[in-house]
Structure formats: C-alpha cells, structure tokens
Design brief:
single chain; alpha+beta; Ribosomal Protein S5, domain 2; 6-stranded mixed β-sheet; 4-stranded antiparallel β-sheet; elongated; mRNA 3'-UTR AU-rich region binding; RNA-binding; rRNA processing; cytoplasm
Length: about 450
C-alpha cells in the first residue's frame, strides 16, 4: 500500500506557513519536539517518543567466535525495521531505499564513531567474544525517524547489562543475574543525530521536521554529534547545494540540542537505576503510563473496614422483610399436568375472525387426537385382560395384519357413551371384512 500523497492545496499551505515562520504544531523554526524515554522490565529495552514518532529498542548478546581479522574485538550488529504498523507506506519484508539509508546512517553513527569499546567484549582472544545486537522497531511514524532511532539506540546500549563471565584455563563460565550482577557496556560517548530540513533551495531551515514537512522539503541534512561537540558523522540528501555558513550554523544548533538530549538521557538512566535498587520499586512500560489512561493494569487499593462485621450483619437481617408464609397450591386440571398460581390474562384483546377459525380447528384436532389416544389405551388394556382370561381371539387367514376384536373398557360417564358407539361400529366393520375375505379365498 502506497502512502497517501499531499494535495496541491495542502502543499501550498505548508510552504506558505514556512515562509511566514510558522509550523503546524506551533513550534518555532529551531524548536525540538518533546523527547520521552521509558524503560522496560529487562535491561536494554526502551521506548523513545519524539513527538508522535515512537521507536522500540532492544539489545541482546551472545558468545560467538570473533572475526578472523579482529580476534580481540567484539561484534556489533544493528538492525532497523519499518513495519506497516508504523505507516501504511511501509511494506513488510522489503528493503526500501529509505530503510537501507537509515541502517547505514545508524551504523556510521554508532559503530564508526567508536562509541562502544569493542575490545572489552573479548572473552578469549581468537575463540569467544560477545556479539551485541541492537534491534530497532518503528512503532509510529510522524517524521524524523533517524533522530528517534539514534536516541533509542544509544539509550538501550547504555541501559543494557551483559552477564558476567569468568575464565579458568580453557573453561568459560557464564553467570546468571542471580549469581553475579550483570556488567554494563563500556561506552565512551553518546552520539546523537539531529536533522535539518531545507526549503526553497536552502532559503528556509527547520529543525526536527514532521512527516508533512518532510513531504514538501527540498533537502535534508543530518549531523551526528556528542556533547563534547565532536562530529561523528554528517550526511546530506536531496537536490540542494549547501554553503559553508549553512553547515556551520547547523552544527552550532546541533551542539545545543545534543547537550540537552544527553542531559535528559542521563537523568532518565539515573531515575531507572534508583527505582530498580529500591525494594518494591515500580518500573516498566505499564508503570510509566498514567493511571488516567489505563485502568485495567493498575487500580488504587481501597481500604475495607472489617470491624463489627457480625453486628452489621445482624442489623441487616433484622431490618429485612420476613419471607411470606402463603404458598400457592398446585391446581390439577387433568392427570399428569399441574399448574401453580393463575395464568396471565390475554393482553391482545379479542381475536379476529381468521384467528378464531384457526383456534377452532386446532381445538378440533386436539380433541380428535385425544380420542384416538384414549382408544389405543383402551385397546391395549382390554388385550391384556382377555389374554389373561384365555378368551378366544378371532384371526384372519389373509396375509394382512391381524384383526383383534376387543371390548371397550369401562370409562367415566362423560366419555363412555362416545367411545362405546365408535367401538361397536369399528368392530362390526372389521368382522364383516374378515368374513368377505374368507369367502373369497374358498
């Protein structure tokens, strides 16, 4: 998915605002966005927020054989990933030109500046050294990725602790954090990148450009410097030609910004160490988020008074209404059914003619099915009685089903007359059919 391009109206609006020395977020030309550093639960894990641009940094280490041409130096590996989660214009698994340029710039800033003492990473010369791996993940893209990535990288390296190691002869022992305290990396200085955006062939200059400002800029100048005002690397991109005075002015601005950011990083590291040394101290990403934004992770404890619980319970029981002693009795309409209480009256009003006809048909069907069920029960009962008395049963000689002549059981007065008449008719018809079939067979 490609990034959404700027419209001509928006482009003209941004350029006109820059000419008037105004920015969309209210900053001045040389103002930097707010930098916020938060550390994870493990050493070497941090998130750096530069405005809305967020970068996650994670440092890991392992023992590996050294390079043949440098047997007494450790190995440094840097990797920056631009995921589609940060911006829709980034495609997964594809090395874009922007990603290659950013990775090379980070390597020059951190590796070529010799900010880390690689010789201190050697365990056994020519056999085992520490490989330090720095992974940077862009979580949200709002412009100036390289500055946020460089700050996150150096903060994670300063915060990282590798396991302690002891060598006895040819045996190498790696201690866990419980056995021995981890050892920090030997860092000489902290290089930090500062980006400058140029507009209208270098006429206007902005520090820390945002994503919209990067879309309309003509060129970009990145200067990596430490607090000692030593330039570690410098890179210019875009189709602009810069004069010496512009570069010197940018370097002076960089020195001021780097000093402020370095002081902020040192304070953040000191505060994290104090919290970790303190017993019961709270640290990590979840603790750094205010309670107003997240209520599922943290909840303030509420005091519960457990005194006089029995007395309060007795008061509640005495004030409660006693249970009613009147219970509804079951109403037996017919054997096998029961009802408790009275039914709810119909709230739909009188039925229409069509509904009345349907109700009458359903009642007729239910009565017919009821008579048939009673008839079958009577036949079964009479069969059992006749077989017990060893009375003769009339069977037909045909291959059809057997015809059994039964006498109905004595029923209550209401249904006796109806069932008797129907039973006699069915028995006569069955007897006549059996006689006709016998004559036809003979």
């Amino acid at each position: 998915m490609k990034a959404t391009p700027l419209s001509n109206c928006e482009r003209r609006f941004l350029l006109r605002a820059i000419e008037e020395r105004k920015r969309l977020d209210g900053r001045q030309c040389y103002d930097y966005r707010n930098v916020r550093v938060s550390f994870g639960a493990d050493y070497g894990c941090c998130i750096v927020e530069l405005g809305r641009t967020r970068v996650l940094a994670q440092v890991s280490c392992e023992l590996v054989p050294p390079k043949p041409n440098r047997p007494t130096e450790g190995i440094l590996f840097f990797n920056l990933e631009l995921s589609p989660m940060a911006a829709p214009g980034f495609e997964p698994g594809r090395q874009s030109e922007l990603l290659v340029k950013l990775n090379r710039l980070i390597e020059r800033c951190l590796r070529n500046s010799k900010c880390i003492d690689t010789e201190s990473l050697c365990v056994v010369a020519g056999e085992k050294v520490w490989q330090i791996r720095l992974d940077l993940h862009l979580l949200n893209h709002d412009g100036n990725i390289i500055d946020a990535a460089s700050i996150a990288g150096i903060v994670a390296l300063c915060h990282f602790r590798r396991p302690d190691v002891s060598v006895q002869g040819e045996e190498v022992t790696v201690y866990t954090p419980e056995e021995r305290d981890p050892v920090p990396l030997s860092i000489h200085h902290m290089p930090i990148c500062v980006s400058f955006a140029f507009f209208q062939q270098g006429t206007y200059l902005l520090v820390d450009p945002s994503e919209r400002e990067e879309c309309v800029m003509d060129g970009l100048l990145v200067i990596a410097m430490n607090k000692h005002r030593e330039i570690c690397t410098i890179q210019s991109s875009g189709g602009i030609m810069l004069v010496k005075d512009q570069v010197l002015r940018c370097s002076k601005i960089t020195a001021v910004k780097v000093a402020e950011i370095t002081e902020l990083i040192q304070k953040a590291l000191e505060n994290d160490q104090k919290v970790r040394r303190k017993e019961g101290g709270k640290f990590g990403f979840a603790e750094s988020i205010p309670n107003q934004k997240i209520t599922a992770f943290k909840m303030e404890s509420a005091a519960v008074d457990t005194n006089n619980v029995e007395e309060q319970a007795e008061e509640i029981i005495t004030k409660a209404d006693p249970p009613s002693e009147v219970f509804a009795k079951p109403i037996l309409h017919t054997p096998g059914t029961a009802q408790i209480g009275e039914g709810i009256e119909n709230s739909w009003g009188d039925l229409e003619e069509s509904e009345r006809e349907e109700a009458a048909e359903e009642e007729g069907e239910s009565e017919a099915t009821g008579f048939e069920c009673q008839k079958m029960e009577i036949e079964d009962i009479s069969m059992t009685k006749e077989t017990k008395k060893d009375e003769p049963i009339v069977l037909s000689d045909s291959e059809e089903e057997e015809v059994v002549i039964l006498e109905p059981q004595e029923l209550p007065k209401k249904t006796r007359t109806q069932t008797n008449s129907k039973q006699e008719n069915t028995s006569k018809k069955a007897f006549n059919k059996s006689r006709k079939k016998k004559r036809a067979a003979h």
